[in-house]
Amino acid sequence: MKHVAEVEGQAETRIRMPTRRALAKQQTRAKVLAAARELFGAQGYEGATIRDIAAAAGMSTGAVFANFADKSELFREIMASDIEAVLTAMTEAATRGRTVDDALLKAFSAGYAFYRGQMPLVRAALGLSWSCEDGQALRALPAMQDTIDLFAQQLALGVERGELSQECEIKLRSQMLFDNYLANYPQAVFGGWSLEALQARSRDQIRVILAGARRG
Amino acid sequence: MAASKGQMTSPKGKWLATGGHAGSPVGGTHDRTRRQSALGGKLNLRQTQKEATRRRVLDAARDLFETVGYEETTVREIATRAGVAVGSVFTCFASKAEVLSQVMLDRLDDLYAELDLITPHLRGTVVDRLSSIFALHYAFETRRTPLFLAHIAAAYNWRPGSDSVPYGRNPRLRGMIHDCIADGRGRGEVSDEADISLIVDTLMAAYAWNYRLAAWEQAGPDRLSAIMEQQIALVAQGFTPAAAAA
């Protein structure tokens, strides 16, 4: 989150020198987002009210509503920047993999490492993702599909390198990898699983999902 | 596959028949009466009353959730319909989410009573049988998709120590899938090296997350089951013994 705000700031200054007013507005937004992230993390989505968020940011509820339509927009904005950043980390990690298994495992691990220590926020996001409207919004985030595409690219590279067979049903398999990647989060949220435990589980899951693809 | 589809039709039809009386599934009521009388013998008056209150709250909540919706129903309305005080609801349940969790668990009793009868008669390959078990689950849960999705979302508010269960933990289904694959190994369809409990985990993850398609794309039971069958077949490629695959 921190670095996203920075990147935005840099881009703004370079492209079209913002007015002092625009800068102040940006600072307000950043302050609200930081406070909201903290409260969603501590109290979950339902538990955090706009009033609490405003108080934590040191401003009136009116000032919050001047920047965000409602609580779900606030949450979406936090999720959007997180998912974007986690995808970058996962993509970078995958390039360091030597085999298809290794690349996928590194990508999974980068995702889990990103959210370490933020399980209440993950819990809130998972809950929300099942609701019809907010779930649609989360799903519509390009980075969601991009994550599945990242798995698909790694499978395609595996085919190129001759590790996987030509008919390995990349689309279905990358979807299953994504299902399993997500399904481990509740283990961390409710079971308190460590990063190492998540990695061990992921390694096994990847093996099971790829097993059939190795037969040429 | 044709064989197992045939197997499925009759139990599915049976549920749809009982499902007509959404409020009072025959098996459920019977079960409940039995449970209550069994409890009545051992418990003191206060415990019996508390159990009766709990029962009334659950019945009222189930009716309201199904007709009005989960979000739209307040604890006050549940209390009014059950004819108890709001405070009594909270002596039995910590939150509305916990009431929903229990309502959904109770509903599953009906599903598993049916499945216990059906599973011994499943035929076909291990893929066919697994597909049937998952298809029956999808058919059951999509009868009340909005309520089922509300229950998944609410399960993420789970706190340690509460009575509700986080989404994705379903020991009965897990056990059933495990047995089905172990039986397949007995018939030589599953290689000896395959790690069955790991395969179960992988399938359970796919099963649970496929419901996203119901939430986001209004997918019905047929589509969910078709996707699940592809996923099962894909995992099966990995555990089929080399000799059987060739």
How would you describe what is shown here?
The complex is a heterodimer of chains A (216) and B (246). By secondary structure, chain A is mainly alpha-helical. Chain A has 2 domains: 2-68, Arc Repressor Mutant, subunit A, CATH 1.10.10; 72-214, Tetracycline Repressor, domain 2 (Orthogonal Bundle), CATH 1.10.357. Chain A contains 11 helices and no strands. In chain A, helix 5 (71-95) packs antiparallel against helix 6 (100-114). Mean pLDDT of chain A is 87; it is low at 4-9. By secondary structure, chain B is mostly helical. Chain B has a domain at 2-21 and 95-245: Tetracycline Repressor, domain 2 (Orthogonal Bundle), CATH 1.10.357. Chain B is elongated, with a radius of gyration of 20 Å. Residues 1-38 of chain B have low confidence and may be disordered. At the A-B interface, helix 7, helix 8, helix 10 and helix 11 of A face helix 8, helix 10 and helix 11 of B.
Shape of chain A: elongated
The number of distinct helices of chain B, counting runs of at least 4 residues, comes to 12
CATH class of the largest domain in chain A: Mainly Alpha
Structural class by helix and strand composition of chain A:
mainly alpha
CATH architecture of the domain at 2-21 and 95-245 in chain B: Orthogonal Bundle
Structural class assignment of chain B: mainly alpha
Task: Return the domain count of chain A.
Answer: 2
What's the tally of helices of chain A?
11
> Which residue ranges of chain B are poorly predicted, with pLDDT under 50 across at least 5 consecutive positions?
1-38
In the CATH hierarchy, what is the architecture of the largest domain in chain A at level 2? Orthogonal Bundle
Reading the helices and strands of chain A in chain order gives HHHHHHHHHHH
Q: Assembly type of the shown chains?
A: heterodimer
User: What shape does the CA trace of chain B take?
Assistant: elongated
Measure the end-to-end span of chain A. 44 Å
Distance between the termini of chain B: 20 Å
Percent of residues of chain B in beta strands?
Answer: under 5%
- Main interface: chain pair and counts: A-B, 36 and 37 residues
The average pLDDT of chain A is: 87
Question: Unreliable stretches of chain A, pLDDT < 50, 5 or more residues?
Answer: 4-9
- Topology, number of strands of chain B: 0
- Computed over alpha carbons, the radius of gyration of chain B is 20 Å
